[in-house]
Structures are given as C-alpha cells and as structure tokens.
Amino acid sequence: MPVARITPDLEMYYEVDDFADPWRPHETVLLLHGNAESSAVWYGWVPHLAHAYHIVRPDMRGFGASTPMPRDYPWSLDRIIDDYTTLLDQLGVERFHLVGAKVGGTIALRFAARHPARVTTLTVLSSPVRGKNAAARYLSWLEHLEKHGMESWARMTMSGRLGSMFPPEGVEWWVKLIGRTPLSTQLGFISAVPGVDISPDLGNIKCPALVVTTEQNPLYSVDTVREWQSRIPRSELLVLPGDSYHVAATAPDRCAQATVEFIGRCARAAVER
Hints:
By secondary structure, this protein is α/β, with parallel strands linked by helices. The chain has helices at residues 46-49, 77-91, 103-114, 135-148, 150-162, 168-179, 183-192, 222-229, 247-250, 252-272; strands at residues 3-7, 10-17, 28-32, 54-58, 96-101, 119-125, 209-214, 235-240. Helix 3 links the parallel strand 5 and strand 6.
C-alpha cells in the first residue's frame, strides 16, 4: 500500500500506474479527484494514459485511504497544493501534466498559477471557480449530512452529479464509494468551500489549459464556464454532450482521449516554436 508521510497529521495514499516502455523517457500526469472521492475514480482514465505516461493518483488529504481530518481542520487550497507538491518531491517528479475534476480542477487551476515552472499542461473538468455562489447549497448539505450521514447525502446528490444516462449499477458504485468518506472530513471540507475564489488566479496561468464541461451541466452553464475559461491566456473549451455535472466520470473515455490529444498537440507546438 503506497503511503507517503506528508506532514505530521497526514499519511497520503497514492497509486502509480505506468505501462509505458520502460526504456523510453515518459512524462508524469498528476490526477486530482473531487470532493468525497478518491484515486479510485480515475479507473476509466488509466487505460488511456498509462501506456504513454507515468500516472500519479493521490487521495487528497482527509479522503479515500489518506488520513481523515477532524471537522475543525483549517482547510485551504494552498495547504492541499503543498501536500501534492511534497508528494511529487518525494517521488522525484519536477514537471508534470495536471488534470483535475470538480473541486480537484479548482485546486489544479490555483496549482498551475502558483507553480508555473512545474505544470506543463492543465486539464480541468466540471470545475467551479467561486464557492460563494453555491453557499446556500452547501449549507443545506451540512444539515443533511449531520442528520443522515454520508451515504444518504451521496444518494441525494447523485442524479445531478452523474446525469440521466448513467447506468443504475454505476450510480450505486458511486454512492458506496462516496459513502465511505469520513464524515468529519466532509463536514469540515464543505464548510470551507464557500470561501474559495480562485478567479484572481486565472490570468496567472502560463501553461496551455483545456477546460471541459457538458452541454446541459446542471450546475454551471456553458456560458458561465466560457466566461472564466476565456480569462486563462492559453486555454480552450471543450463542450461534450450530456446533462451530468461530473463529465470526467460520465464520459471518461472521451475526456481521457481529449486530454491525451491536447497534451500531444501542446508538445508538437512547443517543438515547432
């Protein structure tokens, strides 16, 4: 079980996938999952990436198999980013391609702005940039979590997350996975989300960026996403069919293929310059 001691209060679990030719140099892709998830959610992505890239899939502080956090933990995006940079330092990874889904993408956007020398390309999927716009929703979630627990909350919110076309068996898998999240971690984390605003970071992202959403995203319209995406200097927007919020989960093949194609195009453009 790969675990890294990041800080005195955190042992971070992570997975590494690498099926590329071992005699050839290959780059690293760091995959950042969303709220109440774990590294396991990238199952559909790994087959597309690991034949050419060194994949690192950590469980964020407090989630998955990483150390749970107390409810009063002082959450911040910068602390989470520091956790990831420490892990990469321990693994000997200096530069990498960065991919984040949902709030993992929010973290990835700030990560790229803070560490431009380390992030080669950036892909974000279904990611908000401001938490305050959803403050009322998060408050209602807290009330439900305290009364009914994680699995009930997961089941209540799953239809918007996965949309109308996701198979029932898949919905149940997601409910069970999210339901295993430590309640103390979740209560503390979502209490902190309304205070997040990374919009000032968008103009400071230097690497090429791919932003992915769905046509009928129930939380953020295409126009809303395009408004902030257009503020990232070297970015492009990909809009996929569907009505899910979590496009990285509902269209993993298409999203992973688009990411591989994007990384390849950026590499060719860098050579030609």
